[in-house]
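Question (not urgent): is this output format expected?
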Amino acid sequence: MVLRAFRTNRSQEKEEPVLVPYTIEQDGDGVWWARALLRPGVAANGEGETPDAALADLRSALALLSEESGTPAELM
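Got this back:
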């Protein structure tokens, strides 16, 4: 599966869509987990009560990762 995220193109001051591969699964307690592996050792995770909630949380994690340390080269 592929998640559509956005990155900011600083030279043009606009957001551009980026496709990020992810997996989603439900654990034994019924919690949904979404995970995007950008490269070995660099991943973002999301969780929620529904698949959509887990994906929304994953999008937030990717945005936070981008804000804290810049857009990962894997998303450029």
